[in-house]
Amino acid sequence: MDIVLVAGLWLDGTAWDDVLPELEALGHRGVPITLPGQGDGATAATYDDQVAAVLAAVDAADGAPLVVGHSAACTLAWAAADRRPDAITGVALIGGFPATHETAYADFFEPEGDAVPFPGWEPFAGPDSDDMSPELKAEVAARTVPVPVGVTRGVVRWSDERRHGVPLTLVCPEFTPDQAREFIASGDVPELADATALELVDLDSGHWPMFTQPAALASLLDGATHR
Fold first, then answer.
1. What are residue 70's phi and psi, to 5 degrees?
2. Which of 115, 108, 84, 104 shows the shortest CA–CA distance to 4?
3. The domain spanning residue 109 has which CATH number?
4. Which stretches of the chain drop beneath a pLDDT of 70?
5. Rounded CA gap, 72 and 2, in Å?
6. Distance (Å) of CA 144 to CA 7, 92, 150, 168, 222
7. What CA–CA distances, in Å, run from 12 to 9, 26, 28, 36, 165?
């Protein structure tokens, strides 16, 4: 099965390099996306441009793909469920949640000029990055790309209620499934509260398991294709 892979802020398609052979060994073809404005050389991309890139990958897939979003890009993966509910096998979210209707996509950090650069590791100290060595942190930081403000401050809008029935797997890395259930029950994640086919799976890693646990992550994604 084709598995469309969408990394979070500051990362391009190469973030999945260690996951691709693991998926291939399990019988899948990974399709990593380098998002507009996030590694393709564009500097004026928008959130809608990134959604369009994900939908284009879904439309070009061989059969109905699984769409995987990491961190902020969980919203982009969920956009595939909203725009293509009958064309995908399901969605897997890694370490993040879809944004709420009519809120900003990822307005978490102050921009510098027209883009938001990687803020360094200090905001991610603790469970997010404890499993990363200093060498790995330096390597990942060197690969990051500033994200255009047109992306981070783009407004998310949901339109098709059928998205709530799409098979949805939430991979819980730096938080536990029980913590995720608390987030959902509290009303903080309305999109997941309304999901009718949600499964939560645990992964003992930090926020970037594609770098630290690629084989384990691939195994969970394989499981998501069989739902």
1. -115, 135
2. 84
3. 3.40.50.1820
4. none
5. 22
6. 11, 23, 18, 28, 27
7. 9, 23, 20, 9, 29
Tokens 């060994």, residue located: 25
The pLDDT of residue 43: 80
Domain count, the chain: 1
Phi/psi at 68 (5° precision)? -115, 130
- The angle at the Cα of 123, spanning 39 to 108, to the nearest 5 degrees, equals 60
Contact between 121 and 130 (Cβ < 8 Å)? no
User: In 3D, which of 129, 27, 29, 141 has the Cα closest to residue 16?
Assistant: 29
**Rg (alpha carbons) of the chain, rounded to whole number:** 16
pTM summary value: 0.97
* Inter-residue contact 48 to 155 (CB < 8 Å): no
The whole domain housing 16 covers 2-225
Residue pLDDT, tens place only, 82-91: 999 999 999 9
**Dist CA 109 CA 144 (whole Å):** 15
User: What is the token pair recorded at 107?
Assistant: 């307005």
Can you name the residues that pair with 30 across neighbouring β-strands? 3
CA distance 88 to 91: 8
- Residues 41, 32: Cα–Cα separation, whole Å: 17
Strands (E), the chain: 2-6, 29-32, 66-70, 90-94, 115-116, 147-148, 168-172, 198-202
Structure tokens at 186: 């509290």
